[in-house]
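Tokens for chain A. Residues wanted.
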């Protein structure tokens, strides 16, 4: 099996969410078998709201990004998590 690069979009609960703190909290819950690739990037959405874009390297096995998605969704301040892209590397 190989590895997969997955790009996830994390939407904060509101414009007032502390993105610096949220980034740190997301880094702290990355599950075993996944690693952060690059920095967590802020992407402007609208009216001051910014999404966080996280790129992870995960194993190419069943349920590859699900542990990370579930861990990120449980972080305080996260509204939702969406996989934008996933491709084999």
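Reply:
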């Amino acid at each position: 099996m190989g590895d997969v690069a997955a790009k996830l979009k994390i939407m904060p609960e509101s414009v007032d969410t502390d993105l610096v703190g949220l980034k740190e909290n997301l880094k702290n819950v990355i599950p075993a078998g996944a690693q952060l690739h690059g920095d967590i990037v802020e992407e402007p959405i609208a009216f001051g709201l910014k999404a966080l874009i996280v790129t992870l390297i995960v194993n190419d096995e069943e349920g590859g990004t699900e542990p990370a998605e579930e861990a990120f969704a449980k972080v305080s301040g996260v509204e939702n998590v969406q996989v934008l892209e996933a491709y084999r590397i």
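The chain has one domain: 3-88. The two ends are 11 Å apart (CA to CA).
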